[in-house]
């Protein structure tokens, strides 16, 4: 019956449909409330070590019940008390009667609430960073493989000078590398709220330790260390500054923008049939058109990336309206925006890894598109060859101009192929360079230093960035949906 009831209420597709188990767990009630209990244990241990009358038996009792949460009791307590932290204090105290008097001693709700949020943010980044590293690794391998494969460049989505498939991938990689550095920096900048009291002044702890400032500072340091942080914020109000949330979610929104651009490019190239994302043997592209191979993974990434970019507005507005030491209108918003940002980033990175592990390139299609446009792009080279053969630059320019317009009319008005090269070959004026035309029109003479740029960029900027994650590179992504 319970399983059936699950389909009678809304379930976020971020968890029910897409997110990885590790990220879903990171923002789960189980992790949240067991972390609260760990924080109460850290606090009791530190207070005992600094001389407060707390016994080993009380701490042992708390530790033995750290994971055994009666969620039904906690829910009932919250219905009565209308206070989530006190509901869990009472629930913890119920199974720890000896320790009950010292649970949450001197603390405010934000001691467990905010510190747990910071732990979840830190651990969320620790889930994302290896995933982003794997995406960069797969795309770097792709860029290396196709470093010298010429392809049409596009500006304004109009054919432009040639580039290479690998060089284009490096444009995507450059943005992802920036995101990698931004996420790592945001993760490393996180500090612990620590033990600060109701308005951040530590007054309750100063009273507990009878005015001993050194012990209060040592308490803060000890608890911060137990929680796995190197530093705590030196000043807070009741909460840590909500600018911290802005910083974290801004980096994720920036990642969303990157992924949207990459996946939009893949969708455009799929339309040209030059590149395709992986397509399963039994996958259906359209219920009505059996022949279709829709880029649904890239489309999913774009869809979710827009949500990720939009979510940064929440912490921006929340930070701007926090009055004085704190107002509670941050709470309900943060319960949604913080988890959803990390869950969404997790989903798009998993999906993008799947895409980059199976990107399919069609060199013959790319070559056909180049042949269609290259004669126009080669006109300057043809003029230079004629001048070297003794021709007049202006006369040659006029000849090429007329032939180009005739060829363009065939392409645009008649729907025919670009026959500029054939027109040049038939015109006796160009007889002195007919033997050079194949060399003049070799696509690899139009890609400049693209292959060399790829090689240097990968070796100097991309591969070193991945070194810390080498042990986590072998994980492959199989999408369930």
Automatic annotation (TrEMBL):
Annotated metabolic or biological route of this protein: Purine metabolism; AMP biosynthesis via de novo pathway; AMP from IMP: step 2/2; Purine metabolism; IMP biosynthesis via de novo pathway; 5-amino-1-(5-phospho-D-ribosyl)imidazole-4-carboxamide from 5-amino-1-(5-phospho-D-ribosyl)imidazole-4-carboxylate: step 2/2
GO biological process, one term: cilium assembly
Keywords in alphabetical order: Lyase, Purine biosynthesis
InterPro entries registered for this protein in UniProt: AdenyloSucc_lyase_C, Fumarate_lyase_CS, Fumarate_lyase_fam, Fumarate_lyase_N, L-Aspartase-like, Pur_lyase
Entry superkingdom: Eukaryota
Enzyme Commission code: 4.3.2.2
Residue ranges occupied by any Adenylosuccinate lyase C-terminal domain in the UniProt entry: 374-458
GO cellular component terms, semicolon-separated: cytosol
UniProt-listed PROSITE patterns: FUMARATE_LYASES
GO molecular function: (S)-2-(5-amino-1-(5-phospho-D-ribosyl)imidazole-4-carboxamido) succinate lyase (fumarate-forming) activity; N6-(1,2-dicarboxyethyl)AMP AMP-lyase (fumarate-forming) activity
Catalytic activity from the UniProt record: N(6)-(1,2-dicarboxyethyl)-AMP = fumarate + AMP; (2S)-2-[5-amino-1-(5-phospho-beta-D-ribosyl)imidazole-4-carboxamido]succinate = 5-amino-1-(5-phospho-beta-D-ribosyl)imidazole-4-carboxamide + fumarate
Leading EC class: lyase
Purpose of the protein: Catalyzes two non-sequential steps in de novo AMP synthesis: converts (S)-2-(5-amino-1-(5-phospho-D-ribosyl)imidazole-4-carboxamido)succinate (SAICAR) to fumarate plus 5-amino-1-(5-phospho-D-ribosyl)imidazole-4-carboxamide, and thereby also contributes to de novo IMP synthesis, and converts succinyladenosine monophosphate (SAMP) to AMP and fumarate.
Assembly: Homotetramer. Residues from neighboring subunits contribute catalytic and substrate-binding residues to each active site.
Family membership noted in the UniProt record: Belongs to the lyase 1 family. Adenylosuccinate lyase subfamily.
PANTHER family: ADENYLOSUCCINATE LYASE
Record-given protein name: Adenylosuccinate lyase
High-level lineage: Eukaryota, Metazoa, Chordata, Craniata, Vertebrata
């Amino acid at each position: 019956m319970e399983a059936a009831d699950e389909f009678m209420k809304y379930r976020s597709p971020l968890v029910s449909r897409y997110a990885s188990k590790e990220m879903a767990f990171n923002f789960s009630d189980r992790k949240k409330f067991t972390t609260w209990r760990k924080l109460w244990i850290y606090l009791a241990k530190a207070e005992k070590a600094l001389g407060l009358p707390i016994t080993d038996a009380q701490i042992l009792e708390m530790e033995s019940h750290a994971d055994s949460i009666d969620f039904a009791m906690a829910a009932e307590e919250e219905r009565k008390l209308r206070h989530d932290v006190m509901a869990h204090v009472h629930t913890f105290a119920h199974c720890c009667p000896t320790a009950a008097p010292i649970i949450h001693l001197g603390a405010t709700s934000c001691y467990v609430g905010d510190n747990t949020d910071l732990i979840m943010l830190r651990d969320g980044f620790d889930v994302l960073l290896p995933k982003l590293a794997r995406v960069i690794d797969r795309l770097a391998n792709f860029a290396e493989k196709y470093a010298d494969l010429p392809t049409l460049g596009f500006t304004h989505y109009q054919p432009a000078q040639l580039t290479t498939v690998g060089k284009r991938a490096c444009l995507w990689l450059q943005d992802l590398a920036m995101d990698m550095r931004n996420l790592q920096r945001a993760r490393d900048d996180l500090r612990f709220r620590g033990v600060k009291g109701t308005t951040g002044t530590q007054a309750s702890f100063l009273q507990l330790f009878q005015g001993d400032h050194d012990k209060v500072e040592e308490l803060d340091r000890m608890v911060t260390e137990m929680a796995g942080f190197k530093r705590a914020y030196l000043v807070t109000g009741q909460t840590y500054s909500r600018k911290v949330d802005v910083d974290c979610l801004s980096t994720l929104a920036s990642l969303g923008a990157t992924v949207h651009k990459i996946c939009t490019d893949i969708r455009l190239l799929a339309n040209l049939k030059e590149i395709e994302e992986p397509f399963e043997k039994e996958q259906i592209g359209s219920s009505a058109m059996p022949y279709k191979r829709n880029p649904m993974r890239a489309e999913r990434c774009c869809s979710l990336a827009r949500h990720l970019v939009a979510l940064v507005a929440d912490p921006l507005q929340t930070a701007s309206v926090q009055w004085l030491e704190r107002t509670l209108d941050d709470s309900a918003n943060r319960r949604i925006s913080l988890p959803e940002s990390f869950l969404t980033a997790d989903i798009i990175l998993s999906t993008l890894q799947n895409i980059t592990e199976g990107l399919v390139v069609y060199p013959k299609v790319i070559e056909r598109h180049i042949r269609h446009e290259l004669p126009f792009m080669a006109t300057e080279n043809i003029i230079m060859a004629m001048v070297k053969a003794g021709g007049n630059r202006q006369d040659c320019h006029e000849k090429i101009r007329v032939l180009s317009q005739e060829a363009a009319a065939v392409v645009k008005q008649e729907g025919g192929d670009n026959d500029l090269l054939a027109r040049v070959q038939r015109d006796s004026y160009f007889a002195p360079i007919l033997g050079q035309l194949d060399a003049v029109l070799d696509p690899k003479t139009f890609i400049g230093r693209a292959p060399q740029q790829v090689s240097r960029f990968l070796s100097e900027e991309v591969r070193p960035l991945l070194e810390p994650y080498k042990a986590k590179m072998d994980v492959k992504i199989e999408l369930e949906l």
